[in-house]
Model the fold of this input.
Amino acid sequence: MRNPIIVALDVPNAERAVDLAKRLKPFIGAVKIGSELFTAEGPAIVRALREDGVPVFLDLKYHDIPNTVSRAVEAAVRLDVQMLTVHTSGGLEMMRAAKQAADRAASEQHHSPPILLGVTVLTSLNDTGLAQVGVNASVADQVQRLARLAVQAGLGGLVCSPIELPIVRPIAPPEFQIVTPGIRPPGAPPDDQMRTRTPAEAIAAGATWLVIGRPIVSAPDPCAAARIILESLGC
Ligand code: C5P
Done:
């Protein structure tokens, strides 16, 4: 089995990110760069990690008009990222444009196309929060609606909570890559995650990739923490 661990590099600077990624490289499948690190350090942090041969998931959750998202996706592909995110609520046309842009830019750069992932409903929103922004559907129904749209647009996968796997997996094609945060090894503190699953539970429910931050990054020995998780998955 390939290594499904994506470590969330939720650290404030490039020095710490590069050091962690170098040490963790043998024990992980990829690293995730989010808004904090990217805003602080810019594209240079992506280039540094790619020069070290670490696969990168650039999680900037693009949400804009199709032309703007396409150009952002092209710029990300030129950085040679392996995964990136767009908001599915940006609509079918935007997602299709993003997918076309990713494929076109990858072909121009002689890279493999990145996996374009859709974000459905932010896990910080509940039914009331959705209603406040004018969506009169339950979170579950809205996640399912947006997941279907992502499949229709030809995206390569989705990011969702492990709790949503039973809603999303049945409507997705088998090759659809489902990436789940909210993962905690048995006995680990939940931190601010409300409803968590263990790595083995999430994989059993249909996750393709596990985004794991603090249980690895804040562990006294991050490599040992990642290795124990891998062993729990039989890798
Ligand atoms: O430290 P922890 O394992 O909770 O980190 C989870 C990572 O996944 C963080 O980078 C967080 O921003 C991200 N994430 C999440 N829940 C979502 C989407 C992304 O926790 N719904």
Q: What stands out?
A: The pocket of cytidine-5'-monophosphate is lined by residues 8, 10, 34, 123, 159, 161, 181-182, 191, 193, 211-215 (CB under 6 Å). The radius of gyration is 17 Å. The first strand starts at residue 5 and ends at 8. The longest helix spans residues 92-109.
